[in-house]
What does this fold into?
Amino acid sequence: KIIKEIKRIGNDYPYSIIKESIKKQWNLDSSLRFFINKNCRLRGKITNVIENGIVEIPLVHQGEQNILYKGDYQLIRKVFVFGERRNKDFEIKDTLSHKFYMYRMIVKQEENLEPYMILSENPLEFEEYLIEGMLMDLDDFSDVSKYTRIMKKSHVVFVNNITPAKKIYENHNQLLEELKKLNLNEDSFFQNLFCISEGKQNLYFQHPRYFEKLIAAFCLSTKYDSSPYPLHLLMIGKQGGGKSKVMEALNERMSENIPIVEGSGSTMKSLIPSFRGDMTKPGTLIESNRMAFVDEFFRILMRVDKDDRENTLTHMNPLLEHKKRRFGSGNNFLDGCMTAKLFSVTNPVFGTSNMDYLTHKLDNSFLSS
It folds into this structure.
């Protein structure tokens, strides 16, 4: 009986060498094996499911072809490995296929955001992971033609080993014991939280302690109870009040993949899932990991027609509530979930100079989120 299996190995050879190893193994014992090594290490966030999640993908084909040589037909047998251009004259006789969950991950590499297609045997959550896997180059897309356009715009990685990046503490005491190692006191904590690096200097933008405690409470807040809601923050203030400096300091502390969104030059489609043809864009709210930062948030709303403003805001509600939902259009769909807290600052535009005006201008369901 022919052995068919997927085998994880610990080397870091490029995929080109792995392909040759698969072929040598077949020449040795006619087995169809697919090796997944560790030639890349990634840290990034799973933003959404691709297609319907789990898909059976052909990994190794064994084909045959009769060729005429010196008046006689000779049988040629050969294997073709995933992503390799296949000679269509070969008739496929056997195939090693396996089911994988397909996800999109974004990874920050230097100053660029790179999309990766992650193929995992196990379901993953929409959160940050550390992945060791096999990065590959694809010459042929025929076996996965449904996903061709996505794959051509993404790096493809088979998961060898995966670990959640977040650390979960069993209780508050365990967390406090970890904090003791940092030798923090109240002053040093806030000096770090509101610090911005400028050149070789770290500048502390000091605020009244009550305000610093408010921001710290927002940063450390968590979802609680049987119907958990995240805590988001919208800061409204006059120009020159230092709102953006607070946001820049928090952005630096969080080391987010997604840079601060500038509302004065953006539309709502930059924040929420959007669909164009067969391509989907999750948007900043889904792609952000811990915090999503938006400067001049109300400027985005001003680009929306007044009569449609309420409807536009409600598009954000399931995201702000951190609910796993399917978003879609007639062209495509996206299964995703926001995990970040929204920290947005803005000037008081279109009649939002106080809380009374604000509650009358904005949709109630949006404000409750």
